[in-house]
Amino acid sequence: MNAPMNAAPVAAKKLKVATTSLAGCFGCHMSFLDIDERILKLLELVEFDRSPITDIKHCGPCDLGLIEGGLCNAENVHVLREFRKNCKILVAVGACAINGGLPAQRNHLDLRDILEEVYQTEAGISHGGIPNDPELPLPLNQVHPIHEVVKVDYFLPGCPPPADAIWKLLTDLLAGRTPTLGHGLMHYD
Amino acid sequence: MSNELTFQLDGEDISFTPGQTIMQAAKAAGVYIPHLCWHPDFPAHGSCKLCTVKVNGRFGSSCTMEAQAGMSVENRTAELDDKRRTLLQMFFVEGNHFCPSCEKSGNCTLQATAYELKMMSPHFDMFYPDRPVDASHPDILLDFNRCIMCSLCVTASREVDGKNVFAMGGRGILGRRIHINSESGKLADTDFAVTDRAASICPVGVILVKRKGFAVPIGERQYDKTPINEQVKEPTA
User: Fold this and answer.
1) What is the rounded distance in angstroms from the CA atom of residue A103 to the CA atom of residue B90?
2) Nearest by CB to A101, which of B98, B120, B125?
3) Looking at this predicted complex, what is its ipTM?
């Protein structure tokens, strides 16, 4: 009622975006950076919460969470649940988040056998034994995609998804549209 | 013109000759009906169910059902494509389909069909079955992780090559698999040759020719640029 007559229009509130790489290789994040100068346009619309870009350690309340990588250890599960709790929209980005990807190639092998081979019996590396520092997250028996643990709102396939596909997803979501990929942007490889 | 036999496929008139299946008539007319186990050179297997259409309101496999004059067939409806996507998701979780490390990626019928039906995720929990590869043959690698049990290799080896190298066996999702007809169970101990029809019939990345990997780069392969529904009249491998 008492608002000044000629106040400048309030700038639209920036959306909060968090990103993380679980059992991934950061390749999806690299592909994200491949949007190049469009990131400047993006920064006019969003503000980053937890992300390798900010180095914030815990995800606060966010509008959008981008998850790269699947779940290979207990910490991955905790981070994923924190993201789900805090993000209104959660997106599985890339092959590993969607089906386990490369890390899941260990799934038909026994975990103990793998650890013993890598840290004890394989020639050419120091035989210091299987690491058991309490700081280290415990590996899961098998690698799992994230939709097996939390509800995922959208999926962005690709290894990695092309920068243009990431851009399409972001611009669709920012405009309030359901994200869609055309044939050229939809790749599983 | 008046003697021409036709049926309706998604409201379009498709002509056919007596004895042709719905799938055969559609392919001849250049209309895509999603399918995996059907191949124009071989009798229909009717197992993948991806080509299910609605004929006069009832579900039927278009690869086995003969076209009849005046029938009304639904194909690319949201209802049918939803069911097809679910079937695809079941294929993807039952095997180990990791496209980024697969030499068939870009040339794969399963992958191209999943693109066409906009399959964004596997939806179900993954099975991650243990399916050892067979690299015993000097010219051919068998990676059973990607097998969808279409049985085209079984048919091609038996009917065209006259060799009977492959067989389907076992029960259940994790038990059923392709067997090799040799005492050792290894491909090296058969008379399979890289020139066999069966060597080039696999719609997914199970039967791969050795030393040919990535001759065509990812991104420039058959379905990378042109979707599968626009390649209906192309010769199938």
Assistant:
1) 21
2) B98
3) 0.93
**B52 touches B62 (CB < 8 A):** yes
- Do the beta carbons of residue B110 and residue B91 sit within 8 Å? yes
Determine the residue of chain A that is closest to B120 in CA distance.
A155
A15-107+140-185: in CATH 3.40.1440.10: no
Question: What are A167-175's contacts with CB under 8 Å, separation 24+?
Answer: A167/A35, A167/A38, A169/A91, A170/A42, A170/A46, A173/A64, A173/A89, A174/A15, A174/A45, A174/A46
DSSP 3-state of A126: coil
B208: closest CA among B98, B103, B131, B92? B103
- What number of other Cβ atoms are within 10 A of residue B69's Cβ? 11
**Which stretch of B56-60, B156-160, B174-178, B180-184 has the lowest confidence by average pLDDT?**
B174-178
pTM tops 0.80: yes
Tell me the C-alpha distance between B193 and B50, whole Å.
31
DSSP symbol at B39: -
Looking at chain B, which residue has its C-alpha nearest residue A160? B100
Domain positions in chain A: 15-107+140-185
Domain B99-225 part of CATH 3.30.70.20: yes
Question: B6-76 architecture in CATH?
Answer: Roll (3.10)
> What distance in Å separates the CA atoms of residue B41 and residue B28, rounded to the nearest whole number?
13
Contact B105 A188 (CB under 8 A): yes
* Calpha distance B223→A149 (Å, rounded): 32
pLDDT tens string A33-65: 999 999 999 999 999 999 999 989 999 999 999
